[in-house]
Structure formats: C-alpha cells, structure tokens
Fold this protein.
Amino acid sequence: MRAADTELRGALERAGAATELVSAQAPREVRTFALTDLTWALAARRAALAGLETHQPCALLYSSVTAALLGPQRGAIRFDAPAAANRRGRHGLWQRPLERRRLAQAPLLVPYAEGSLREASIDPTDPRAIVVPVPIEPSAPPRAESPERDLAAMTYAANPSKKGLDRILAAWSAVRRDGERLIVCGTDRVPAAAGVEPRGTLSPNDFRALLRRARVFLAAPRREDYGQTQLEALADGCTLVTTPAPGPYAALPIAQQLDPRLVTDDLAPALRLALNQPAAQAADYAARAATLLQPLRRAAVDRVVAEQLLPALLERAAR
C-alpha cells in the first residue's frame, strides 16, 4: 500500500498537482483485527490532523478505508477492499457500520478495481467512483532472446493461511518432478518439502528478479484483495496458475481470459499443465498477458489521473 501511495502521488504530480503525503506511524501490535484497525485508524487520524494543519491542502484523499474511519474531515477515499468483505463477524463489529457511513459521505471514491466497488455494495456507475489501478510495469526491458527461466515455479505467502500456502505445497508435492524448484517468498514459515526453497521477505527488486526467472507463478488465496504480486508475475512473463478466489482480485479475469484451464481449485493438474507447456506457448501466453495489462501500465493510469481523478478532486474540493 505504501508503494501504491507513492505511485498515485507521482501520477498526480505528473498531472500538475502539488501534493503532500503524510503517513501514520505504525502503532504497537495488538491481538485482534478489530483492535488493530482501531489503533491504525487513530494513528491515521493523528497523521491527517498534523498534515492538514501543516499543509492546508485544497483537497484530501485517504489512502484506505481504515485511514478514513476516524478522519477529521470528509475526503476522497482510495481502497482495495472494504471491511464489509474482509472483516466478517466479530472481526468487523465497529468497522463495518462506520465504513458504510464514511463511504456514503465521501465526495469521491477511488477504488483499485471495479470489484472493490461491488464488495462495498456501491454501484460502479456511481458518479463519485473513479477506478485508479496500481500501475504495473515489467521490471526489466524486453530482451530480443527468450530469458532463461531456470525456476519451475514461484509463490508469495506473506500470510500463509490467507495465501493458501498449504494448498500450494500439496499441489506441488503431487506433481513435482526431479530437479524442479518452487520458490516461496514472503515468509519463513514454510514446512520442509522436496524442491521447496523459502526465500523469506525480499526487496521489491529481488522479488521481481526472481519472477523473471520463474516459468509459473502459483497462487491459491482463500481471498484476494487486489493481487498485486500476480499482476507483477504476469508483467514479468510468468504463467499464472491460481484458484478462482473471491475478492476484487484484479488479475483473475486476466488469467481466465489467458487460459481458463489454469484458473481452478484443482491446482495440481493445472500446475503440471503450465509446467509442461512448450517455450513457444509460454512466450505466446506472456505476449497476450502484456496486451491485457496495457490498461494497468503507468501511462494508462496517468491518463485516468490527469483526465478524471485530479479534475474531480479539485471540483469537489471547491464545493
């Protein structure tokens, strides 16, 4: 989300706006989701109050629903997924009703994807809504020759339960062949298994360097808020094998259009199918993925920001 904030700020400034980005100081860790959201909302309120006093902006944009929950004044709200979808039951007792009020009061809604609006029960045709994705760029210039793909598969499991690491490892164990490696990033909590290499938390550059070496990116989220890593994998030429997880999951319709056989809850045969594809077929998949990702490239997002978001922010701030 910090990277998404930086990208949006850059797009606004390229459109001619002067911006200030104020960030909440991370609060201490607490035990429950409800209390975690409260401590972060309070931290965001303190940051917003300080930023408003120091900079006196003509427009205000909160970078998440949590940041807006206790916001000191109305402002546009950017969000990937609402509490209505990812804070079910007791985990969102106070957040969900307050979120409904904040979203209803907001002068402008800036979701990452149309699916974000649907999960918040907001009509995509709502005139306040402007979808602004996080830009996705290849991490290296295209090469004339095919890049070496010496890693069979890769996955990201910062939250092993939410990202379905158990399902990934089960599928891998069922179809792995001698010499094939699965790289697991984002966590060190990886059970020992043949051909599985944990890499823990990596810098963005190191993570993308691994993507450029992987043939397949394997994802099995139980729920996906946006799916940034899957989009990055597609941008760097990986074949995506994924479960059809609920959530805004921006990469899911792209993956279904590229090869619906690889979007399934039956991961093992889909993984083997992707690993067995000839190099020419993999190259064609990557080329078609690059075409489908064009609306998410930085230049396309810049146009949305310059032509739609910035004028709307200024117009509504003037009311």
